[in-house]
From TrEMBL:
Subcellular location: Cell projection, Kinocilium; Cytoplasm, Cytoskeleton, Flagellum axoneme
Name of the protein this chain belongs to: Radial spoke head protein 9 homolog
One GO cellular component term noted in the UniProt record for this chain: kinocilium
Keywords of the record: Cell projection, Cilium, Cilium biogenesis/degradation, Cytoplasm, Cytoskeleton, Flagellum
Top-level taxon in the UniProt lineage: Eukaryota
Alphabetical list of InterPro entries matching this protein: RSP9 (IPR055316)
Cytoplasm in keyword set: yes
Length: 271
């Protein structure tokens, strides 16, 4: 969520039981405005909160010129120091999914992760992982699978740079009811012609990302319209605590995750 609109947007997230207190908003706006100025980010967003036993992690995203490839993720536990998260490695992204201990709130903490897919005698069966790497991997997994935007929020310029559209005026009521109106904020993973074959209104500048209606299994997203159809809410069943809201026919929209960082791996068996 745009950090400069948290006072306005807290009314939307309140519907889902998430409370952004006055104190939290004040702390976020003060510290993240300084972070934005120091790093010359074009956009600064509050990404969400991951619960820890001792302290919670608060996550922010700084966006430079390219809104897809130049995103930097920061964490804090005290709102005084914002640390830059390292790029998540593939092995840690896997280990973070099978780690069953809660976060502590200390980036130097080390945990042991048991990979039950390996034989008991395999020396690689039990691996050590620092909490900082686990945090980076967890956030990377959530972003790849559940961080979304409305169609038209991000546009690709002729030079290939993706920017936050200044001309996004919101989805219409009928569009807001469709899963294909919401896109993953990540480099496209489907074939380049997927949207061309499935959208009669294909537009290269807007449809360069994967739409969530292609996600497997069918039903892994929960889309509802509240407030007499004026606000769309999107939730991922894979990542409890994730929510995206969009006020129909306005530019107001935001992503927020508040949870323990655990993926619900049982979704395919529950649907």
């Amino acid at each position: 969520m745009n950090v400069h609109k948290l006072w306005e947007y807290r009314e939307y997230v309140k519907v889902n039981g998430i409370m952004l207190t006055n104190e939290l908003i004040s702390l976020l706006q003060t510290s993240l405005t300084m972070l934005q100025v120091e790093n010359h980010f074009t956009h600064m967003q509050y990404w969400g909160q991951i619960y820890g036993v001792d302290r919670d992690y608060h996550i922010a995203v700084g966006i430079n010129r390219d809104a897809i490839n130049e995103r930097k993720y920061f964490y804090t536990t005290d709102f005084k120091f914002w640390g830059l998260l390292p790029k998540a490695k593939k092995k840690y992204k896997f280990l973070s999914l099978i780690a069953n201990t809660p976060f502590r709130g200390d980036i130097s903490e080390k945990i042991k992760v048991l990979d039950e897919a390996l034989d008991q005698g395999d020396p690689e069966r039990c691996k050590n992982m620092k909490e900082e790497k686990r945090l980076a991997a967890t956030i990377s997994n959530i972003c790849e699978e559940a961080e979304v935007c409305a169609r038209g929020q991000l546009v690709k310029q002729p030079d290939g740079v993706v920017v936050v559209s200044p001309n996004f005026y919101g989805l219409t009521g009928p569009e807001a009811k469709l899963l294909k109106s919401y896109l993953h904020i990540r480099p496209a993973q489907h074939k380049w012609n997927t949207n061309i074959l499935t959208r009669a209104d294909y537009n290269l500048s807007m449809d360069f990302l994967d739409s969530i209606d292609m996600d497997i299994p069918n039903g892994c997203w929960n889309l509802t319209l509240e407030n007499v159809g004026t606000v769309a809410y999107l939730k991922s069943l894979y990542w409890p605590g994730m929510m995206y809201f969009h006020k129909v026919r306005t530019p107001d929209a935001g992503f927020l995750y508040v949870g323990n960082g655990r993926k619900n791996l049982d979704v395919p068996f529950l649907l």
